[in-house]
Structures are given as structure tokens and as C-alpha cells.
Design brief:
Length: 109
């Protein structure tokens, strides 16, 4: 990121920023987080000050840049590992069927 944050964002500000970056309006953010619209406006103004940006668009850009950097730092995803190990396994054929489930009986039957 180009500018350093003086103060880290609070968890509530992170949630607001995530929704803001997805293009939500203040009213939509307030409804999603079950807070008042004035609370969202306060969070947005604090986010802009802490990130040292002029508007919501720049704040959203910073959010997505940070998300991209964090994604690149992560090791290989578990999903990708599972795909590589599952490809070597074969699925059971007709002769190798799984055992059938037993039907549960109730006392009235």
C-alpha cells in the first residue's frame, strides 16, 4: 500500500470496509451489520482518515489491494492439495459398490 496507516482499523471498521468495497451503500451496510446509518457514516469517515484516502473508491481500492497481498502470502490451498491427491484415486466401479444402508424400523412396524 502506498500510505502507511497511523492507527489500525477496528474489527467493526474492517467489516464496514469489506461491505463498502463490495459497493454497498451506507443504508445497506447498516442493515447488514444491524447498526444505525449514523454509526456506519462515523465508521466510514474514520476509515478514510486512517487509510489517508479522499473517498470511498480509494478506500475500496486499498481493501482489494490488501486482500490480494494476503492471498499471495498464503500457502497452497487445501483444495488444490486435495485435487492433486484425489486425481490418483479411482472411484469404485460396479463390482466395488459400497454396502447398502440398513433400514431403520420403528416399534410400530
Amino acid at each position: 500500500m502506498s500510505g502507511q496507516m497511523h492507527e489500525p482499523l477496528t474489527p467493526a471498521e474492517h467489516r464496514v470496509l469489506a461491505l463498502l468495497a463490495r459497493g454497498r451503500r451506507n443504508a445497506e451496510i447498516a442493515e447488514a451489520l444491524i447498526v444505525s446509518e449514523n454509526t456506519v457514516k462515523t465508521h466510514v469517515s474514520r476509515i478514510l482518515a486512517k487509510l489517508q484516502v479522499a473517498n470511498r473508491h480509494e478506500a475500496a481500492q486499498r481493501y482489494w489491494e490488501q486482500q490480494d497481498q494476503e492471498r499471495r502470502k498464503r500457502p497452497v490451498r487445501m483444495r488444490e492439495r486435495r485435487l492433486s491427491t484425489n486425481q490418483s484415486r479411482k472411484s469404485p466401479g460396479k463390482d466395488e459398490t459400497r454396502p447398502k444402508r440398513r433400514r431403520k424400523f420403528t416399534r410400530n412396524e
